[in-house]
Amino acid sequence: MEGARPEAVIETRGLRRVFKSRGRQVEAVAGVDLDVRRGEIFGFLGPNGAGKTTTLRMLSTLLAPSGGTARVAGCDLATQPGKIRERIGYVGQAGGADREITGRTELVFQGRLYGMPTAAAQKRAAELIVMLELDGAADRKVGTYSGGQKRRLDIGLGLVHDPELLFLDEPTTGLDPQSRARVWEEVRKMHDRGTTVFLTTHYLDEADALCDRVAIIDYGKIVAEGTPEELKRAIAGDVVTFTVAGEQQRALDLVKDQDFVREARLENGSVHLYVDRGEVAMPAILRLLDGASLQLMTVELHRPSLDDVFLRQTGRSLRETAA
Amino acid sequence: MKLIRDTWLVFGRYFGLFIHNPVWVALGVLQPVLYLVLFAPLLRPIAAMRGFPPGGAYNVFVPGLLVQLGMFGAAGVGFSLIAELRMGVIERLRVTPVSRVALLFGRALRDMFSIVLQSLILILIALPFGLSIHPLGIVVVLALIGLIGLLTASIGYAVALAVKSEDSYAPIVFTSALPILLLSGVLLPMSIAPQWLQNIAAINPLLYAVDAARHVFNDNLGDPSVLKGVVILVVLSVVAVVIGARQFGRAVA
């Protein structure tokens, strides 16, 4: 990774895709502007049918856009799809390995598709098998793999040619928690090696835990974009909840007019403060209470989740829609 | 040359899958053999009829059987492709820089190979029944049948990529294959058909393939109909490969 000015790996302006269905036109992607920087893990978050996969398929040359422009890995999507294909890796929802073939055979074949000589493809396959801990499974047919092994092989197929940009379409959907954590670990390793990762997900915790930046898409439009921290802060700030020994009202009066407090109220016998940044507000609150000789009994810092962001932007909870 | 390399690569993949499953070759040969054993004997008395082409029952019937094998042997290729669509294999291949023509041509060549192999087996089995053919004739007829296989497979893949489901693929392919087969003179020579039926059959390219194959089996390699059949099949195969490759290049949702 280089200097201060981050280079865009994906840059889209007004990207659109219209599907015709029974005579009706459905705008699956309705003018998307995206800037994904080199080396970051970029999360594309939204409920099913929001346009995540359609956008991903356009960016990976699988689907022609109906409108707008895009540059991917330094190449123009409309005129240089072949060059883009050489530079990106893509792991679709279905994976892409044939159940009747062994994992190793698939990896070697994939390398050959990218123009590697057989020996180099075999060497690379062996490396990936070790890296993804598929040693025990590599020479069995893919049909016998567990969900986690299958997913790791799919990712391996996307990494064979060491692409500068990897697309992952819902990489952990349908995986058990342990396999999910394993996939996250692989994504972080790619990130450490400098690979840019563009992933879609409808899991908020995944976007939160894994992504440097997130864009939320709903009905084909980006409704919010930023780091998970920024997005959450833009919505509600943090919530500090505390109780003191004695009269809660006195404590409320003491803190409610401070600069860092956006909103304060008494709820269920404790003081709720909506603040911009909880980590800054907390020490100040403690000092104020201490100065007024109020003894703090309990204190809790609650950060708004990405679900709060989604709720605010779309008017509904992602948990409900993704179910 | 990238196209040749990619085609060879794709062919290798599907050839590998094919030799791991020789059951399909056996089943592919079984059906024509059943025709040969259970149906061809019925042709002996009919072969004496007026209008029946010269050459004896087997030399008339086996070319038709081969054409049928070429066509139906390749008509089912779309099923495996639809299964691959579902596994995401096709999408994965399409994201790589591999040639789109190779994606179609490589696998259609595999189908062609399997059909030529089945045809050869059928010819060898038919020899003791009274089939007589010049060795050079075998080569020409195998090329003809291989072309029919290539043509049918390419169309099958294009249809499979367009409809994406077995439920649509099966009726489309097998319903359209039946009239083509009936009007090709595979089962009985079209020369004994009434004029109106012959008129319809005249637009069926497979008719010319069967005609060419029958001339080859009668040691008439120099007959203009042989060249005509080959040229028609080559042209149609090229068109079908181009259409199929375009389907591979286009969006597959």
Keyphrases for this structure?
heterodimer; A: 323 residues; alpha/beta; Rossmann fold; Alpha-Beta Plaits; 2 domains; six-stranded mixed β-sheet; four-stranded antiparallel β-sheet; 37% helix; 29% strand; elongated; B: 253 residues; mainly alpha; 12 helices
Question: What do these coordinates show?
Answer:
The complex is a heterodimer of chains A (323) and B (253). Chain A is an alpha/beta fold and 323 residues long. Chain A folds into two domains: 8-232, P-loop containing nucleotide triphosphate hydrolases (Rossmann fold); 238-303, Alpha-Beta Plaits (2-Layer Sandwich), CATH 3.30.70. Chain A contains twelve helices and 14 strands. Chain A has a six-stranded mixed beta sheet, sandwiched between helices. In chain A, helix 6 (177-192) links the parallel strand 7 (165-169) and strand 8 (196-201). The longest helix of chain A has 16 residues, at 177-192. The mean pLDDT of chain A is 87. With 253 residues, chain B is mostly helical. In chain B, helix 2 crosses helix 7 and helix 11 crosses helix 12 (224-249). Chain B has one domain. Chain B starts with a helix and ends with a helix. The longest helix of chain B is centred in the middle third of the chain and has 29 residues, at 135-163. Chain B is built from twelve helices and no strands.
